[in-house]
Specification:
four-stranded antiparallel β-sheet; binds 2-acetamido-2-deoxy-beta-D-glucopyranose; eight-stranded antiparallel β-sheet
């Protein structure tokens, strides 16, 4: 069953010319021995490529590592329970990556290892998320209610306390008494790391009073990865696009049901022995597909069955659907036929030219799905994949 499903996906989505084994015929399966193991591995490798990976993420042992709440919330905002994109306009790019600090410094300084970001990936926005803790020092310290928090890109670790060794990337006033997440946009710094313009020496955060005096670290404190709860760790969030968006078919973006064609050809009024003709055909083929009209049927892709549940956080699987059925003359409106298909079905019915089949029942609208997963470096990534779910089927 598994291999059949794999081939289904590959044949349908990658337009490979693999003939589809009949689901109805149990004896028609691939041999379930050695040879099939090769096919299985090749199929899974191909499926990984569909998901933009060469190999499954290496570190499979994940002792119940908890994905950042921010990423879980983001996933639930963009995707429904099946992982299908709710609103394609919510994310500008197709990838969101989260990173934890690797430095664990005494100062408010952070280093994020961005080695998993491909050079070809376009950085749209980069955000530093810091959790501000309650102030420990008494308020007597300051007449001011705000402090100035500045984020610097470190250019020279030996001189990072003076202006020559760092570059200001973001700065903002924050209420001294506030607690909770503060987000700073640091796109400029991340772009310079990824392009190789500057090597990634990390970020330094300074906190000053409005009079410009550097404050005591007890007055304004941010959670660190070392001393505070996992859920409050400093985090870098990268919104990127890997340029893999396809343009093959109209997706939900371009939308409505009548995008398929311009004006439709009126249904032809030919006086054909159509019914008789169809009966003859179905007797010839003795195939159920010939009789059921083109329709969308379920096709569940189970990540656990494929062995990917270790690194995929959400969803557990998704319904890709598949298109099945016949497209006989005359094609009604509900067959969502293109003009081309209508003409082909007429030519087929009239037998004007030999060897012209009826049109094919194929997906004519595809939706994207979202995957929340751990990458090679155990960072949590949210990625959108286009054209993964058949939204509707039509005769083409
Ligand atoms: C499978 O491979 C093993 C060893 O590689 C061999 O002994 C066995 O006969 C093979 N089975 C089939 C069905 O080819
Ligand atoms: C920068 O200042 C902090 C505290 O003010 C100090 O701990 C650190 O060693 C200094 N770093 C350098 C490179 O001078
Ligand atoms: C189409 O069929 C209808 C009735 O079946 C008939 O009234 C009409 O004249 C036909 N149109 C053409 C173009 O043959
Ligand atoms: C970043 O992570 C990669 C992969 O885990 C590792 O090979 C590399 O050494 C790391 N780089 C630094 C600077 O720690």
């Amino acid at each position: 069953m598994f291999i059949i499903i794999m081939f289904f996906i590959i044949a349908c989505m990658m337009n490979l010319s693999i003939s589809r084994p009949s689901l109805d015929n149990e004896d028609n399966r691939f041999p379930v021995e050695n040879e099939s193991e090769e096919v299985r591995l090749a199929a899974i490798k191909r499926l990984l490529e569909v998901f933009g990976m060469e190999d499954p993420p290496a570190s499979v042992v994940r002792n119940h590592k908890q994905p950042p709440q921010y990423m879980l919330d983001l996933y639930n905002t963009v995707a429904d329970v099946d992982g299908v994109t709710k609103d394609p306009t919510l994310l500008e790019g197709n990838t969101v990556r989260s990173f934890f600090d690797k430095l664990h410094s005494e100062q408010i300084a952070f280093v994020f290892n961005l080695s998993t970001v491909a050079r070809s990936e376009k950085v749209l926005t980069a955000e530093l998320h810091l959790f501000k803790l309650r102030s420990q020092a008494s308020l007597t310290f300051s007449r001011h209610h705000f402090c100035q928090v500045s984020i610097y890109q470190v250019l020279d670790t030996a001189k990072m306390n003076i202006s020559q060794g760092r570059r200001l990337v973001s700065s903002r006033l924050i209420p001294i008494q506030s607690t909770g997440w503060e987000v700073f946009t640091i796109t400029q710094a991340v772009r310079s790391w990824i392009s190789g313009e500057h090597s990634n020496l990390g970020l330094l955060v300074t906190v000053r009073t409005l009079a410009g005096i550097q404050t005591d670290l007890r007055t304004v404190r941010f959670a660190s990865g070392q001393n505070h709860h996992h859920s409050k760790q400093p985090m870098l969030v990268l919104f990127t696009d890997d340029g893999r968006r396809t343009t093959s078919l109209e997706g939900p973006l371009k939308g409505s049901d009548d995008t398929i064609a311009g004006p439709r050809l009126p249904l032809p009024n030919l006086t054909l022995p159509a019914a008789k003709h169809r009966v003859a055909r179905s007797l010839d083929y003795e195939d159920d597909r010939e009789r059921t009209p083109c329709q969308r049927l379920p096709l569940y892709v189970d990540f656990e069955e494929i062995g990917w549940s270790g690194w995929i956080v959400s969803p557990r699987g998704y319904n890709a659907y598949h298109c099945k059925g016949s497209c006989p003359f005359p094609l009604g409106q509900n067959m969502r036929a293109t003009n081309h298909a209508t003409v082909q079905s007429i030519i087929n019915a009239l037998k004007l030219t030999k060897g012209i089949e009826t049109p094919c029942c194929v997906p004519d609208k595809l939706f994207s799905i979202n995957l929340l997963y751990f990458d090679d470096d155990e960072n949590v990534v949210l990625k959108q994949y286009d054209d993964m779910v058949a939204g509707s089927c039509g005769c083409h």
